[in-house]
């Protein structure tokens, strides 16, 4: 007789206190940094009137991602991940305050680029640790649900940040940088309230050799290579977001909307997050993906089509709808990729593998911005966006043939590496039951906060 499966619990991850705190802190940072991102793009384009200036914003952020992400992944596997994140947030707060000062006094643009470079360096230090810490807060069979809720609330903050940021920068550009600094400081206090038993760490050794092990792991595991590289090229070619200041000021017709170009920019930047939020909430309440690989390929193809339509649009509402659609489809791809990366990787390698994932995906965001700005400089912003969408469709067709293992991925939980129960504080046999209590905050259990 077949035992009936347990009913789907859409709120399983949210029932874990440490995960809720971690989630809240992350959203605070997202709101602050998205407002800063809006401000820096608007300020550089307003002060230079050059599309290439927007491309350079992407370039100076991409260089630290390419150079520092893999070493940061190594550090996340051998050191305390929470402390690395705190150091990262402190440095980011300082650079945001520096940007605020130079914006207020209309200081050197070159120095502002340098501060943006340092800000990206700070964030690179902590990103792999932040990503690798998440699987230790929830059991592996709840991890997909945790990713869905993180993306759901993340999209709320990504929607609120730019929408509010548009009004903030219309009032005061420096204020957007100050708000970003305050958000990272608040996240530090959240991290200090959480204690995590990190389980097995990698043995310190030659950094280059251990970093190479992370790259080699992804290269050998073709399904991970396929998922990461598909998102890489999709984001690299579909970098329309970096050109939104141009579309808001010079291309989209705002007559009759009652919006200033700055406010329209805020709404345009918020549109992808709004679409992603709707999709993320839908996914959080839906059962697990049954054919995750095929779903990811279709989502990235749809992203390319929506990007093409946005490039041709001159209507604000159609443009916002297409950006919202790109956000919704990208959310599907993000959930599948992040779940694959974390569940398919042993705990002692998650920092390095997360770093490989972050280096390719995050740097492709910034390099995609540089590519879009450079193409817009020579051929115009519309050509830049439309050609990027066409290129995304071509990549999907190529990957469908090159990586059959990705097409065949079914349930994501079935891709998990051997279960890692080192984060559990309950005795063996109780890990899957109600006695399991991971990552208790100081004062809630027996976990030693000094070991976090």
Folded structure, characterized:
With 452 residues, the protein is an all-alpha fold. The protein has one domain: Growth Hormone, Chain: A (Up-down Bundle). It has 15 helices and no strands. Helix 3 packs antiparallel against helix 4, helix 5 runs antiparallel to helix 12 and helix 13 crosses helix 14. The longest helix is centred in the first third of the chain and has 32 residues.
* Helix count, DSSP H or I runs of 4 or more residues: 15
Shape annotation:
globular
How many discrete structural domains? 1
Mean pLDDT across the residues is: 78
By CATH, the topology is Growth Hormone, Chain: A
Give the structural class: mainly alpha
CATH architecture: Up-down Bundle
User: Which stretches are low in confidence, meaning pLDDT under 50 for 5 or more residues running?
Assistant: 418-452
- What is the helical fraction, as a range of percent? over 70%
Run of helices and strands = HHHHHHHHHHHHHHH
Q: Strand portion, in percent?
A: under 5%
Number of strands: 0
Cα radius of gyration in angstroms: 21 Å
Q: Measure the end-to-end span.
A: 45 Å
CATH class: Mainly Alpha
CATH superfamily: MFS general substrate transporter like domains
Largest sheet: none
